[in-house]
Amino acid sequence: MGVADSPRAGVAGLTTAFLLSKNTRYSIVVVAKHMPGDYDIEYASPWAGANYMPVSLRGTAAADWDRNTWGPLQHLAQHHPEAGVHFQECEIHSRSKDAGSTTADWFAELVSPNPWFKDLVPNFRPLPKEQLGPDVDFANVFTSVCINTAIYLPWLVSRCLENGVVFKRVVLDHIAGAAAPGIHPASRVDLVVNCTGLMASTLGGVEDKTVVPARGQIVLVRNEAGKMMDISGTDDGDEEACYIMTRAAGGGTILGGSYQKGNWESQVDPNLAVRIMKRAVELCPQLTDGRGIEHLDVVRHGVGLRPVREGGARVEADRIEGVPVVHNYGHGGAGYQSSYGCAQHAARLVDEALGTRAKL
């Protein structure tokens, strides 16, 4: 059966294609404008940290997706170093004075004293009070994973290729175009999987205006942090954040960040970059051995637009102009940490629509 996966070849689309490709009854073509190796403001996945720090609220579908993603990421860190995923201790610091800010609302579950994932991730425990910084009310520590996106996205492509997936660069104006003649080698597409991320807001046939960007700005440095760190807010602005993570396999350390909803600006804000670096060095002095930001060794600055969908990600079946479609988009800043859970859900919907049962 012909299946067209129509993403920005980001983590949602590639993971869905990978899981579907395990079913030998499916013949899959990934149709995308952007592929791993590209850096474009429309294409969020390469800019991500990326890591596993669940922000989904307890009892939601998003929490289930995150829960179902931890196992596969843990397996990759344990058994597949070539995927660019490694274990890292993670510290989450919370300040009561941040309550109500954009960043604190985004991180609400993550920075709570009793998050739903505390019994899922290894080594979850409170940080002793004597180790807390000024204004920090409490902090939790656990073992998580950090992902080198420059390795992981091509790794997903390679797994797909091993399973016979075909990749094509195509720019679509309408979702039905993914089922057009010539897209699939068999000249027949039975179903389209829509993983278009932020561009679901403009793609014909979808045009989901509830999808908006949440602008994130980062600094990639060569300095080692030794652990991941996050805090519930900053004193620099309602939409600014402070988080730190060191990527696997020499991928450098990501310093972030911001959560500027509705902001499409693709260019780096140099003043924000300075604030990001100052906050990171204050939160994690070991980055520069207690010295200032002039001792940060910068690789590059970056801007990515998280594809946020009001009301949460859309993972559901649909039919558009007679073409069966399964949507999997709008994951905001949770693309990696919900990737397998969402892809499993989308794959089940594909199986139901086509009357098959995938071997996931």
Structure description:
By secondary structure, the chain is an alpha/beta fold. The chain has a single domain (11-356), classed as D-Amino Acid Oxidase, subunit A, domain 2 (D-Amino Acid Oxidase, Chain A, domain 2). 22% of the residues lie in helices and 28% in strands. It has six helices and 15 strands. It has helices at residues 11-20, 61-79, 102-106, 149-162, 270-283, 339-354, and strands at residues 2-7, 27-32, 85-94, 125-126, 138-147, 166-169, 191-195, 211-221, 228-231, 240-246, 253-258, 260-261, 298-309, 314-320, 323-329. The strands form two sheets. Strands 3, 4, 5, 8, 9, 10, 11, 12 and 13 form a nine-stranded mixed β-sheet that branches. β10 and β11 form a beta hairpin. α1 (11-20) packs parallel to α4, α1 (11-20) crosses α6 and α2 (61-79) crosses α6. The two termini are 17 Å apart.
Count of runs of 4 or more consecutive helical residues? 6
Structural class: alpha/beta
Order of helices and strands: EHEHEHEEHEEEEEEEHEEEH
**Low-confidence segments, ≥5 residues, pLDDT <50?**
none
Please, what is the average pLDDT? 94
> Briefly, what CATH class?
Alpha Beta
SSE layout and pairing:
Blueprint: E1 2-7, H1 11-20, E2 27-32, H2 61-79, E3 85-94, H3 102-106, E4 125-126, E5 138-147, H4 149-162, E6 166-169, E7 191-195, E8 211-221, E9 228-231, E10 240-246, E11 253-258, E12 260-261, H5 270-283, E13 298-309, E14 314-320, E15 323-329, H6 339-354
Helix pairs in contact: 1-4, 1-6, 2-6
